[in-house]
Amino acid sequence: MNRSKPKKNREPKPFSSKQPEGVRTLLGDPKKAINKLAWPMIIAMAAHTIYNLVDAIWVSGLGPDAIASIGFFFPFFFMAMAISTGLGIGGGAAISRRIGAKDKVGADKVAVHTIILMVITAILFTVPFLIFAENIFYLIGAGELIDLVMAYSRIMFAGTIIIFFSMIATSILRAEGDVKRAMWIMMFGAILNIFLDPIFIYTFGLGVAGAAWATMISMTIASLIVFYWLFIKKDTYISFNFRSFKWDREIMKDISKVGVPASVMQVSMAFTMLIMNIILILIAGKDGVAVFTIGWRVVTVAILPLIGVATAVTSVTGAAFGAKNIDKLKTSYFYSIKLGLIISTIAGAITFIFAPQITAVFITGEGSTRIADDLILFLRVICLFYPGVAFGMFSSAMFQGTSEGTKSLLVTVFRTLILAPPLALAFAIYMNMGILGIWIGMVIANIIGSMAAFIWAMVFIKGLRSSFKKDKNNRSHLQEGCKMD
Q1: What's the CA gap between 450 and 452, in Å, rounded?
Q2: Helix segments in 303-385, DSSP class H
Q3: Helices (DSSP H) in 140-178: which residue ranges?
Q4: What span, in angstroms and rounded, lies between the C-alpha atoms of 402 and 407?
Q5: pLDDT per residue over 420-461, tens digit each?
Q6: Side-chain half-sphere of 455: how many Cα atoms within 13 Å?
Q7: What is the C-alpha to C-alpha distance for residues 197 and 426, in angstroms, rounded to an integer?
Q8: Does 261 score more than 80 pLDDT?
Q9: Cα–Cα dist 412/421, whole Å
């Protein structure tokens, strides 16, 4: 009689009953995952939108020179956000894919690589701008505002590492499905900034420098809380082991495949806005730019929920891709589009019906009433833009989740750079429709570009199904061969 003890299973069990709720959400029902991951981000982004509006109000009290001085810094701030967001998306998508593949060790390694890349990139971004900032601002026309510009920008450039860490850390939390803490920390930072702005700007008499200090202090406090969660309390699913770190070319490639195109994608959207401003100057003068600037703020608020859903799509499709579960990937993608269509249709209806009331909120300054009719027209035309956004944005998010960052970049560039400016010019000039033609051109460009992205996504998903099926068949044949041996 064999009395030997049975061998214990020594394989690691990273997905035990103790796995975090966020990971269970990622690997569970895809529809529930989209809902649970999207809404906290929608709330957090709404808080940031409110902060941006309140911040603009406080700074505007300092006069037009103060607003202009911050405006000179904005392109550089957008660059920092674009790079850090892209790196966060690239690292986060790679983490989600490894969670889906039940490879916790791999997910941890990606997180470590992402943090180290963040530090290196932040240093490379910060040092040249700290040294040459004054010369750069002189070259781009700051001139007599240089003292105000430098008072604000020195503080912001010095805090670039905080901006980078804030974006990367919350991306890691979202990647493992921990969107609630990502939401709370984003809301906390925004609300704290709202309270600190008047204190530093007016009570301490620091002016524009006070606005910079308020921003950096609020971001630093929020970042310290996330730092505590990740590296001291260590109660996240992802863990960090820097001592055994070695550069892994495959991980670097995996992060870059999504991260670099995501960064370029955001910069391309900013470049599109610049081109549209030039077209508007040619067609409608500075009033046209004013209408577009105000109107696009309304559009940004209206599509905020879609951005929240898009962050969920990247994580959920990434996990499904890692698990090679094509049905879950397809379900999450289609459900997100259905949800996006409902949200965008409601937002469009509200915008159309209440366009005069929305316009009245922004038309308060002296002489601004002359653009009221054009702004109402913009809002009522651009609401047709909303439903198409879901198809394009969620297709792009799905490509990011499945490590196809280049495809995500291409569908965005096609819609924003290749289609929008030429169609806007064509309708404005060749169809002799003026400023109305610009808005119509933007809407049609979005519809065509988004439908093209959707068709490409469908073809891609169909190809994935065949690829996953082939891999499964190959594994079955190998297992049968091993049994015969």
Answers
A1: 5
A2: 304-322, 326-353, 355-362, 372-382
A3: 146-158, 160-175
A4: 10
A5: 999 999 999 988 888 899 999 999 999 999 999 999 999 999
A6: 6
A7: 44
A8: yes
A9: 13
